[in-house]
Every structure is written in C-alpha cells, then in structure tokens.
Specification:
Layout lengths: L3 E2 L10 H11 L11 H20 L7 E4 L2 H16 L2 E5 L4 H9 L3 E3 L9 H7 L4 E5 L13 H11 L4 E5 L9 H4 L5 E5 L10 E5 L14 H4 L7 H39 L4 E2 L10 E5 L5 H10 L2 E2 L5 E3 L2 E3 L2 H5 L4 H4 L2 E5 L6 H19 L1
Helix pairs in contact: 1-9, 2-9, 3-4, 9-13, 10-13
The structure holds pyridoxal-5'-phosphate (PLP).
Length: about 375
C-alpha cells in the first residue's frame, strides 16, 4: 500500500541537503564549539556560518539570533524571558499554539479572543493594550487552519497604544511558505522550528532584536551570549541552516506548485463530500494547509479509517487524560464542540505529490460515506 503523507504541519521530512550537511558533524567534526583547540574551532566555524544563514533567512543580523532546542523553547524563551526582564502584562491570542498559550498563562498573562477566521480580534486586542502591557504574542500562520495574521496591523496597534510593549510572533508554521524576513520585519521577537521546514527535530531559533530585554530561561555555561546555555547541537544547527537556505531559495516555486495541489485537494473534497466545509478563507491561508470539516463525522474515527487506507492526516485535538479534546483553535473561532470535532487537517509540504492528492481524493469520500452510513 502506498502512503499519502498529509501531515507536514506536524513534521516534514528532512531535505537531503540538510541530511548531507549534518553528517560530518556527527562524525569527524564532532568538536564542542565552545572549546579553543582545532577540533573545537572546526565546529565553531560551521556554527558561525550556520548562524549567519539562519539569521539572513529571518531578516536578522547574526547577533540577533538565539539558537534553541526547537520552536517550543523559542516561544518560551520569548515569553518567559521578556516577562522575567520587564515584568508587566503578556498578551496573546486564543488561537496560539500551546507553546505560546501555556507560557502566557504561566506568567499570568491575558488571552485575547479571535474572530471567526481565527485572527486576533483587533478591538479586543486594543482593549488589552493597557499601560502595563510589555509583550504581545501573535502567530504569523496558524498551525491548524493555516490562516495568516496581518502582523503589520498588530504591530501598528501595539506601537500606538502600548509603545513600551514588544511584539513576538511564532513563525513556526509560516516559514516554509511566507517570506518571514519581510512579513515579520516589524516584530521584536520571531520564533522558528527546523523540523517544519526540512531540518531536524529539536532545533530552532529565536530572533531577538537589539532593543529587546531578555533574561535566559536556561542557566549554565553562558552560550548564545548568555541567552541560552547548553552545548550547541552543531549537527542540528548546521542542518537547520541548510534547510533554511533551500527553503528560501525554492519558496516561490514550492508555494506555487504545492498551492496548486492543495487547491485540487480542497476543491475535490468539497465537491465530492456532501456538506463538507472549508475552515478559514483560502486566500488568507498558507499554501500547504487544507482544513475541512465533515459534518456528522468524528474526525478521530475518520483519521483511523483513512490511515488504514494509507492516508496520514491529523486533527487539532490533543489527547488529555485519555479523552480527545476538540481543538482550542476551532472553539476559539466560535465553533461548537461537535463542529470542532469534525475538523480534519490535511497539510502538504515540499515533497508532496499529485499521486498523494489522488489517493486522498479516493480514500476520504469513501471513508466519510462509510462513517455516515
Ligand atoms: N508553534 C507552532 C505554531 C507549531 O506548529 C509548533 C509545532 O507544532 C510549535 C510552535 C512547537 O515547535 P517544536 O515542535 O519545534 O517544539
């Protein structure tokens, strides 16, 4: 049986260039880049070069990038690190990834509602921008619906109402599809994660612009100019840089090609499954995201069934204490629990093929009919 992998928003395969780039650092160039002898310096040189590539891909200077152990850590460093340095109030949107949402709650922050498309409600945000607000965190693209936030508007509102506040954006899902260097240019902190764009898991970066006050959340050897202690994952960081380079170079082509596949998948399912609904306005979504609802069908049951036919997809639900919880993003958008439970995310990525779309177009309508029948 062939597999149609439609869960690239969860993780995407590594780019061959990234695998090739990391191998020497797992073998002969194994040095600790914090050392001073020749083996250490060899690792240090690669680390410095990778830092430059990643920073450039994010529109930052090399000294503005903090290399982290993934997207969750980058988000936590932004929120907990700024809060520790500045105090005051942290504000985030209700559709944020749990890495931001739970970190914001952990520092006693305020969660602002989103509109029916999942974008932060600008009136509610304005109301939350009080004199004591010090950090606002709004994601660039949502991991479930793929809907893109008009970040410039958010930044403008923050600058006007809370001039002392910083803006953080979680660009983890955006990076494969959007020119983050431009789109997030107004943000003070920007988080990305390598495994969403063809790098390895457990590696990420946080852009920290010059005016940002940040306290570390990991204490130790003082790496990353004292902002993130811990021996560098040199192989992972070098691979992240290689993946970032290929992603940026091929982004326009990937968006056009994969966006076409996504449109064929979404349009095909909307036409062949009665009552199927698309989540969020397509023209405001990243190119790889197809999020649909099939009324009357439990997403969990559907995903099990299509998995047996080789189609790998997911729902935004999290498994807490054994019970499947409907997606907090869909609930925040105003859907009922029942509506939210019928939501399925089919996410495409750089290696997605037309054959995978064909397989999904064959398998999903049958599975929905079976469950409804
Ligand atoms: N933020 C968003 C929007 C994500 O989609 C994810 C991963 O699913 C993360 C943060 C966490 O990144 P990581 O898996 O690297 O910890």
């Amino acid at each position: 049986m062939t597999t149609a992998y439609l869960d690239h928003a969860a993780t995407t395969p590594m780019r061959p260039e990234a695998v090739a780039a990391m191998l020497p650092f797992l073998t002969e160039r194994f040095g600790n880049p914090s050392g001073s002898h020749s083996v250490a310096r060899s690792a240090r040189a690669a680390l410095d070069e990778a830092r430059e590539v990643v920073a450039a891909a994010l529109g930052a200077k090399p000294g503005q990038g903090v290399l982290t152990g993934g997207g969750t850590e980058a988000d936590n460093l932004a929120i907990c690190g700024v809060h520790a340095a500045l105090g005051g109030k942290v504000v985030c949107s209700a559709a944020e990834h749990h890495a931001v949402l739970h970190a914001t709650r952990a520092v006693g922050g305020e969660v602002v509602p989103v509109d029916s498309t999942g974008v932060v409600d600008m009136d509610a945000l304005a109301a939350a921008l009080t004199p004591d607000t010090r950090l606002v965190s709004v994601m660039l693209a949502n991991n479930e619906t793929g809907v893109v936030t008009p970040l410039q508007e958010v930044v403008a509102a923050v600058r006007e109402r809370s001039p002392e506040a910083l803006v953080h954006t979680d660009a983890v899902q955006a990076f494969p599809w959007l020119d983050v260097a431009t789109e997030a240019a107004g943000a003070d902190l920007v988080a990305v994660s390598a495994h969403k764009f063809g790098g390895p898991k457990g590696v990420g970066a946080l852009v920290v612009r010059d005016r940002v006050a940040l306290r570390p959340i990991l204490h130790g050897g003082g790496q990353e100019r004292d902002r993130r202690s811990g021996t560098h994952n040199v192989a992972g960081i070098v691979a992240m840089a290689a993946a970032a380079r290929v992603t940026v170079e091929g982004r326009a082509e990937t968006v056009a090609r994969v966006g076409g596949l996504r449109d064929r998948l979404a349009d095909g399912l909307l036409a062949s499954v009665e009552g199927a609904l698309e989540t969020g306005p397509r023209e405001r979504k990243i190119a790889g995201n197809c999020h649909l609802r099939f009324p009357g069908v439990e997403a969990e049951a559907l995903l099990l069934l299509v998995d047996q036919a080789g189609v790998c997809a997911s729902a935004g639900s999290a498994c807490a204490s054994g019970a499947m919880e409907p997606s907090h993003v869909l609930l925040a958008m105003g859907l009922s629990r029942e509506e939210a439970s019928s939501g399925v995310r089919l996410s495409l990525g750089w290696p997605s093929t037309s054959a995978e779309v064909d397989q999904a177009l064959t398998v999903l309508p049958k599975a929905v009919a079976h469950l409804r029948g």
